[in-house]
Fold:
Amino acid sequence: MSKTPPAFFAVVVKHYKCEASNWAFLDGKDVARSKLEGIFVPHVTPFTREGELDEAALRTCVRFWLEGGVSGLVPCGSNGEAPYLSREERRKIIKTVVDEVNGKVPVVAGTGSMSTKETVLFTEDAKDLGVDAALVVTPYYFKLSGREMYEHYKVLCETVDLPVVLYSVPKFTGYSLEPALIQQLASKYENVIGVKDSGGSIGTITETIRLVGDRISVLAGTADVILPTLMLGGKGAVVAVANAFPKMCAELYDAFKRSDYQKASSLQRRVAYFNDVLVKRYNQLSSIKEALKLLGLPAGYPRRPALPLKDDEKSDIAKALKAMPESQ
Structure:
């Protein structure tokens, strides 16, 4: 794996600085347009059997992901069971991750919610806790128009002085951010620095890159399309599989960056296999935590209503990991 440091923030104005081993966002009122690059882990939140946050387990997992060579961490996202978290729990999780990371890589916290008011509140909290950017999912539950969605992000961008990564995940929200809407937001607001597209449509990703790829980071949100997204001009990925296989995902990115496309293609096939097993086959919250447990990590339990996998499902995950270990 490449020795290149995994903190891939390319900075373009004076309010930010970046060094190879010790980068930091500087204090300032203006928000700079930065570019996220590399592999980011939208990581799980370890809970005890009783459903309480396990901070010690979270710190252990954070160290595992950092040792795997990822480019950044994403607490309180979909895999972090964000819809099940209280405001205080979100704050505690983000504070723990920021503290454990200690400036080694960017922390991009999930702050989206169903309402604009709550999204702004969560984003302000995240900023106060020292995150580097916010990952903001589209509001869900009610069906919104494009105009309403634009106004939602408009209010956020004009209210909170923090870089924003738009997040489109139609399988969970029922709404897909259209490339034209992403272009509108990226053209209007300098603090929109990226978009995570978890829709999995190469056509949509291609059009998004065509429209805004020169201005913001287009990131694959599903492991099926990491390499295709990179080949099209995307800057990286925020993928669930990186929870269990951070090194494999980081190696895929590194292989692409050094133009070793044969190696990158081989790793893409392996990552796609694990994505099918861990994300598509069962409830991904439970599957990913089970895979981490099998790898010796204290991933804890999913929060109800999600339940741990049944014994036969656990066996299926174990067989898959044994049949194609990461080191193969």
Observations:
- The chain has twelve helices and ten strands.
- The longest strand covers residues 192-197.
- Residues 1 and 251 are 6 Å apart (CA to CA).
